[in-house]
Design goal:
Elements lengths: L5 E2 L11 E8 L4 E7 L3 E8 L1 E6 L2 E6 L3 E4 L5 E6 L4 E8 L11 H11 L3 E2 L3 E2 L4 H19 L4 H18 L2 E2 L5 H22 L6 H6 L5 H12 L3 H19 L4 H7 L5 H12 L3 H7 L10
Parallel strand pairs: 1-3
Antiparallel strand pairs: 2-9, 3-8, 4-7, 4-9, 5-6, 5-8, 7-11, 10-12
Organism: Anaerobacterium chartisolvens
Protein name: AraC-like DNA-binding protein
Keywords: DNA-binding, Transcription, Transcription regulation
Length: 300
């Protein structure tokens, strides 16, 4: 299992058609992907198995064939549940794909309010209502088009995205002036600040106190806050991120294991090997020999 987390900065698709399709599979009880966020919008579809998906401070149990919409900037993670393996597809696309060329009524009345979270959207698509079945059908059509790429597939995909949004908005509630999102937004921004710090400073020595000071909390309060938001202890999360960076370096470079351990914030090679084995189920040397293809969590 390869895990990449935090804010994603890579371009999905290309500037003229900013959309990409990603797939991933993991074993029973594994993490599909850790907490991260990106500016792009996302449609996540469970292909097989069962997963617990976090979107900001809410959790959703997704079964095979179900999907969830994740707005730009929302923190999200996913973990497999139940017995057996779990796999999913993710359609990730930039806001520019759905923006109008000129400011018009669809942009004013629908796209802008959706992006700015003016509505409480029914983001979990279970297929239990006719409109949900229609939305899931459009998502499955997009999946097929991304693979087959027939003539004018870009135009058809864009049309189906508009259909999905029209269904979401038609079944949404307008947010009150004061909403739970407003109450939670402060917590989410504090968490993003911590995650961004980890991303920028993982190679340096980071203490629990360093992380707790970012949102202005005591260490005890911060640990409770972080565990409630991420479902993982802060230092466990830090080690997990460091190991994901180390795995990528082992996979794609010829650098010595000891140099990689130092580069990813481990000042003790023995501890690095022990931690790496805990998350990756093999030693760094075994991982290099296997040349295992990492699961592309960083694109989700």
């Amino acid at each position: 299992m390869d895990i990449q987390i935090l804010k994603e900065n890579r371009i999905h698709g290309n500037p003229l058609f900013p959309l990409s399709l990603y797939s991933m599979e993991c074993g029973e009880g594994d993490t599909l992907f850790e907490c991260h966020w990106h500016d792009e919008l996302e449609l996540l579809v469970i292909n097989s198995g069962k997963a617990l998906v976090q979107v900001d401070t809410d959790y959703y149990e997704l079964l095979s064939g179900q999907a969830i919409f994740i707005n730009g900037g929302e923190i999200h993670s996913a973990h497999s549940m139940g017995g057996g393996r779990c796999s999913f597809f993710a359609i990730v696309f930039g806001q520019s794909l759905i923006n109008s060329y000129a400011y018009d009524l669809p942009q004013k009345n629908f796209i802008d309010p959706l992006i700015k979270r003016k509505y409480i959207l029914p983001i979990h698509l279970k297929g239990s209502h006719k409109w949900e079945e229609e939305a899931l059908s459009s998502i499955n059509t997009i999946l097929s088009l991304c693979v087959l790429r027939p003539y004018a597939y870009e135009l058809i995909i864009k049309g189906h995205i508009y259909i999905i949004f029209s269904l979401l908005l038609s079944n949404a509630d307008r947010k009150p002036e004061k909403s739970n999102y407003d109450d939670n937004s402060g917590k989410i921004e504090k968490l993003k600040r911590v995650l961004a710090y980890i991303q920028s400073n993982y190679s340096e020595k980071i203490s629990l106190n360093d992380l707790a000071r970012l949102p202005g909390m005591s260490e005890g309060h911060f640990c409770r806050f972080f565990k409630a938001m991420v479902n993982k202890k802060p230092m466990d999360y830090l080690n997990c991120y460091r190991v994901s960076i180390a795995a990528a370096l082992i996979e794609n470079t010829d650098e010595k294991i000891i140099d990689i351990s130092m580069k990813t914030g481990f000042d003790n090679c023995s501890y690095f090997i022990k931690t790496f084995k805990h998350y990756m189920k093999c030693t760094p040397s075994q991982y290099r020999r296997s040349k295992a293809v990492p699961l592309d969590c960083g694109n989700i």
